[in-house]
Specification:
Two copies of one chain form a homodimer. Chain A has a four-stranded mixed β-sheet. A two-stranded antiparallel ribbon of chain A has the order 1-2. Helices cover 52% and strands 7% of the residues of chain A. With 432 residues, chain A is α+β, with helices and mostly antiparallel strands. The first copy, chain A, has two domains: 298 residues, 2-methylcitrate dehydratase PrpD, CATH 1.10.4100; 116 residues, 2-methylcitrate dehydratase PrpD (60s Ribosomal Protein L30, Chain: A, 2-Layer Sandwich), CATH 3.30.1330. The first copy, chain A, contains 19 helices and six strands. Chains A and B meet through helix 3, helix 9 and helix 10 of A and helix 3, helix 9 and helix 10 of B.
Chain lengths: 432, 432
């Protein structure tokens, strides 16, 4: 007997899709964002290690990989999931407590290309997978995350499996089997943060999803009760099992719509301050003093005061705000360089920026106070959880993609995402 | 900084091996037992599904699979780990709380053949992996198992990784990386018991070990602190972290030596009774009445009173004891048949066998009381945890192997296990 949570998710995931236009639009933005992050990550050391493993195994070339080459779909999902998360620049969902696209799109594109699906079919399946992964993440909850699990990997695997199963046209019984079998192999610890293990966790989720769907398709019989129940994945992995919240409005409300895209190629803790400062229309010469207030947890994470390296800059309020005021695009990877840190104008400006902890703010909020040389004072506040207007969001994702992969390729991809082309045609963009 | 448990295990696993003759002998017996179980399992439905996935992916053919064909070592480990556990007839270690060989030998043979190692090198690496997997299993402990984790899969993955890393000649730093990276992907739930997911869990462990070792070999950098520590695998997975017991005598005592081999192709709950009855030298016509006393937990597991099918026979005290008394080899798979259940002499005998729960016995104990037709009464008691003399054990493993794969093949394999042949030469036996 399948439990209520599994049964409801399985029926939803195998049923008729009734998406909103908004969810479809945001799905496309996340697909573009995922593509841009994947292509931007192809030269990372972990990307090379994963591709070399794929090359050594060889096998059928039915799914393209970021950086070139193709392999079996399980392998392509592993490689693409890892590479697209290598820069930690992909989208985030706060209810999911993780990054849904890297697991789900990596699985959906690998399976979709392998099965000769169309791009609209892949986008539809991914939307289903994203929604499932957010709902499973919510069901696992903060306890699961706080105890040490990396939701991107754990909840992500269930979403990846559902997306792959949708492309294989699974019925509700098969979808329940997907959820049950995924329960025995979904894994990933936050202990890997700061190492190659973090992006690898995303690759695991994507690959697990493809493998599980392929096995169920081949007639594998698992326990479809293994997600919930006394000895299920939730109970064994410190899940909160908040079934009411996790199923709220399923089929009507698309929780996935609240996904956040990252618009700055630096530590997430800096984003709220950069967004707040953006409203102030900073111009470097005008700044007499700039004060940033942020949640205390970020003070030990991303408050390097005077870094000398591009990597250090990514963890420095003072540096990224000075970059923004000097007109250096904080969405572009190349601007975070040793050279930038060495600029005398940046260093002079940096010294006029002060950072303070503020207990009254949430982790997603920041307040920036500007004192101009002419004596004018202005304050701006931003919460990353606030809803962004679709048009604004669209322009910013397109700008980010252009900054990462060039205007030309970004426009080709964006146009294609609105057309009834094959999944293979789109996947050819994964080559470098 | 690497924690004490990881550091100690990593140094041991990469250091000079000082095994005892006993551990080497038992290692060979387990290798033969694993081979026999693997070959006996090749026609199971789950075996066919896994081999068909391997065939569909194709790729380099550097590691042989049970039932024929070869594939990349990650895939061969997944396939062989699953197939060799498909019948649940492989060895068990009570401190490990699981089946060590299916994970470790499947990884060691796949990696060993891939790296062109010799058979003695593979056996040495497997011995190290088996010992590590038992020690990690002990460290995770009963809490981990009781909460729902399948130690064969979880502890097994660490042993598999160490065996694969040993064949790649890893130093202590690399071994610590193996343990750390395995921590983010070791998984497997007992919720899959009774489904294809159970043997698949063993395949996961083997494949995870190979993948992790290959990544570390390619320069992958993981957190070597991820097994232990506040947010490590142990803490997140309800581990007991009993470091003192888990490291006791490491390097001198080979805990692996206490591994139990299964000598009856039926539910483990029946084995103690069969072993006890063996001492009574039953002869069917002499039996007036036979009484079995067993731990209460088995009464709902394997006390089918009058099964009609071969599968049912595997869960029936009365049937297997009647089989034994009639001279039907309980080590052979074919004797558990519908035909056997239909035999009138078996049914007549079965009616004279009575099963009782006895709270005073442990789960590994049974007592059998025989009343012969001539009025003689005899009692026999057996505990599966009691140490078996090496010569007796050897003869019984060889008999079992002969019963499963034929005398000829069993003898060839056993001879080869004492020679300095290539791993490839031995692996050719995996073909059906």
């Amino acid at each position: 007997m399948t439990g209520k949570f599994t049964e409801t998710l399985a029926e939803f995931a195998s049923g008729t899709l009734s998406t909103t236009l908004l969810s479809q639009s945001i799905g496309r933005l996340s697909a573009l964002d995922w593509l841009a992050c994947g292509l931007a990550g192809i030269d990372e050391p972990v990307a090379k290690i994963l591709r070399s493993m794929a090359a050594a195994e060889a096998g059928v070339q039915s799914a393209c990989m970021f950086g070139g080459g193709a392999g079996p779909p399980r392998m392509a999902a592993l490689v693409n999931g890892t590479i697209s998360h290598a820069l930690d620049y992909d989208d985030t969902h706060f209810a999911h407590i993780g990054h849904p696209s890297v697991a789900v799109y990596s699985a959906a594109f690998a399976m979709g290309q392998h099965l000769n699906c169309t791009l609209p079919q892949v986008l539809e399946a991914a939307l289903m997978g994203m929604e499932l992964s957010v709902r499973v993440g919510l069901w696992l909850g903060r306890d699961h995350y706080q105890s040490g699990f990396h939701q991107t990997a754990t909840a992500g695997a269930f979403g990846a499996g559902v997306a792959a199963g949708r492309l294989a046209e699974f019925n509700a019984t098969q979808m329940a089997q997907v959820l049950g079998l995924t329960a025995t192999r979904a894994a990933g610890l936050k202990a890997q943060f700061g190492t190659m293990g973090k992006p690898y966790n995303a690759g695991l989720a994507a690959s697990n999803g493809v493998e599980v769907a392929q096995l169920i398709q081949a007639g594998f019989e698992a326990n479809s009760e293994a997600l919930e129940g006394e000895f299920g994945f939730g109970a064994t992995h410190h899940g909160s099992a908040n079934i009411k919240d996790a199923l709220a409005g399923l089929g009507k409300v698309w929780m996935f719509e609240n996904v956040s895209h990252k618009f700055h190629a630096c530590c997430h803790g800096l984003h709220a301050a950069l967004e707040a400062a953006r409203e102030l229309d900073l111009a470097a010469p005008e700044i007499a003093e700039l004060q940033v207030r942020t949640h205390p947890r970020w003070m030990t994470v991303c408050n390097q005061t005077a870094p000398n390296t591009g990597l250090g800059a990514k963890f420095s309020y003072r540096t990224v705000l000075a970059m923004q005021a000097l007109g250096l695009d904080t969405a572009g990877l190349r601007n975070y360089s040793d050279e930038t840190c060495g600029r005398s104008d940046l260093q002079a400006l940096r010294d006029r920026i002060h950072v303070k902890a503020d207990n009254s703010l949430s982790e997603t909020e920041a307040v920036v106070n500007l004192l101009r040389r002419d004596g004018l004072r202005r304050e701006s506040r931003h919460d990353l959880q606030s809803v962004v207007d679709l048009d604004i969001r669209k322009n910013r994702v397109l700008d980010k993609a252009a900054s990462l992969i060039g205007n030309n390729r970004s426009e080709i991809a964006w146009a294609m995402l609105h057309e009834n082309v094959s999944c293979s045609a789109f996947s050819e963009l994964f080559g470098s």
